[in-house]
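User: Predict the complex.
Assistant: Input components as received:
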Amino acid sequence: MLKDVTIGQYFPGNSLIHRLDPRFKIIITMIYILMLFTGSSVACLAVGAAYTMIAVFLSHIPLKMFWKSVKPLLPFLFITALLNILLVDGGDVYFKWKFIKITSEGVNISIFMIIRIVLLIMGSSLLTYTTSPITLTDAIERLLSPLRLLKFPVHELAMMMSIALRFVPTLIEETDKIMSAQKARGAEIDSGSFMTRAKNMISILVPLFISSFRRADELATAMECRCYNGGEGRTRLRQLKASARDVIALIITLLFYAAAIAVSIVFNRLMK
Amino acid sequence: MGNIIEISGLHFSYPADEGAEASEVLKGIDLTIKEGEFVAVLGHNGSGKSTLAKHINAILLPTEGKVVVNGIDTADEEHIFELRQCAGMVFQNPDNQIVSSVVEEDVAFALENLGVPYDEMRQRVDDALKAVNMYDYRLHSPSQLSGGQKQRIAIAGIIAMQPKCIILDEPTAMLDPQGRKEVMATIRKMNREQGITIVLITHYMDEAAQCDRVVVMDKGTVALDDTPRKVFAQVERVMEIGLDVPQVTELAWELRKAGFDISQGIITEEECVEAVRRLFSDKQLIRKEV
Amino acid sequence: MAILETRQLTYTYSIGSPFEKTAVDHVDLKIEEGEMVGVMGHTGSGKSTLIQHFNGLLRPTSGTVLLDGQDIWADKKKIRDVRFQVGLVFQYPEYQIFEETVFKDIAFGPRNMGLDEKEIKRRVLETAHDIGLKEELLSRSPFELSGGQKRRVAIAGVMAMEPKVLILDEPTAGLDPAGRDKILEHIRQYHERRKNTILIVSHSMEDIAGFADKILVMNKAKLFCYDDTEKVFGRAEEIAEIGLDVPQITKVFMELKKQGLDFGKEVYTVPYARDLLLKHLNGGAE
């Protein structure tokens, strides 16, 4: 089950998108989100969709993967769409029965909403699919580094995040092992009444906590042995260097953003 | 060669819990280790060997006595990073000492902390990875590696600091035979080719037999300290402490007890084969039988 | 009749993904009641996957596992009973301890079996005795104990279910020689008293050579061999070739044989080697 989650997953590769500076990728993604939410016209979304498709194409990541990241959110999309259809009133009435009323405005808005959310998910998935979590953490640390002046613990947070990422596979494996061990002693975890299952969760959580504390303790000693002393005066092996490519990508994104706004304005005029 | 580690009159007790009495873990240890030596520290669980190891790079400080490493007193807080750079430490559990999700970044961790400039860092990381034979794995995630490989990464992370001395606290205890062989070969290579002083804490007698010198700890003191040959020759004493001797040493000892003339200092298979052959050199019985 | 049997047992991980891997490949095996079996194989040989089939933690991709002649997966709902009959102690079992007292932790398995308090108490006391835990320890928190003691508490937790078959995955990993000998000795005593079937997984041939009746060797997902200990050691060279450690003493006798000094016997323990040599040295061969 844990293996099926694709949100936040990384697909190693060497495409143009993969090679972009992660700091720029984060900024570009933010502009992209703004683009999706500025205009409220179909034309604006069409520009956004075109932009997304080009980016997806350049990333060499199969469309199937994006479908996988959208799929878990389908129920949520469905409910949002349904609420919009039922609650928004305006335009032509397509269907009416007692208090249920479906109007053209409601249908338009719900389709619009779905496209917007799907594009949003695709764009942010593109960021995580093409950027390893550790690189992403690193980029966030650097983007936030001005906050250090305000005594915000940027380095510490980034260190915590990267250690957490490092230990995710270890802890998944460990949970699996402890679960098997308790099952071998007859603990019912997948079956049995709610109460027994809850009680048996304790037999997994307690060992897991204890071992995590032990790991944390040992890791802290090992870090000390390797001269760890906070973020002060640290240099990095991972060098982030922005190149012309990154700047061009940023400019193209801004152009798309401008185009989206322009198209919206024109479109709105025409509609009137 | 000079002494790299000088321990004199070392006593250590863990701070007592409320109401409980502090128990002394190390009870007066005097030990000097020369530069370039390959020393094994043996002892059963609770003999104080890990506690001793943690004193060498100031993870613990003596309650009484003194530890000096490469001329730096471990109690001297001002030079603590210099000390830790000079005496690196590798622990038992390979998972709990790897910090980063990318192999090469983990190897670079200490250098990043020390503020080594990029070009030099790149060079030292690559050299360290090549030295432990893991260069091809530099971009892998540690979770994809075997126990022996992870432990070699941990060693690379230490040698990137260019230490004079490495202390390894049971580095092979959690590994399979293959992993143990890899790690031991790596350690030996570091000692031979780079002249790094090695302090290897272990339970495995065959590992100790490969060292220049064996220090046996018992109840917080140094019980035996000599070449592996001379330490293992004292079979009864070693067993009394709760440790093993290599099987070949045990066999030679048994035969000696039964009145046969066989050397006491046998620690390798070759020596044992040779000794048994000598015992049978005047006997033709076996050959006739074959 | 064999207590445990596998027929064409096959297990494949992550079917259909790029990580697909067959960990156990058509294994046929019969383990007789009351035997003490050593299980060997290097990491990734499939031995851990194999033993997790014996108590139904893993379900075969194809093939069957029989306990007492019954297919354990015949009725899926009864799989929990199989786990009580085939006790499995994992590697580093001390990391599964969670109760406040040693007594409660050992009682966890028996309690899950639905036994009454009196029976639970009898079993806890008996197994604690078997594994060498003093009674006054039972009321203590398991987390205050030494590493070796914790390991024994965890092993007792499985023994207390009084399984017909007890499987221990590297019960001595990471222990010092004294701790290792103690645990092996207690397992041997337990075996002698209860006469049940025991499987011990170990990397160290030296550990199991001394007391296993039979040795099972896995290599590359296949059953490499399963035979009497002496016969398996007769193939010591092949075993060394597949990357397993052969006891030092066996290596010495292999070398002696090469040099023309053949004692005609497989040697794998020091006392045996001593007796063999002494017999030939004092008054020659029989």
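Chain C touches chain A through 23 residues (CB under 8 Å).
Let me know if you want any component modeled separately.
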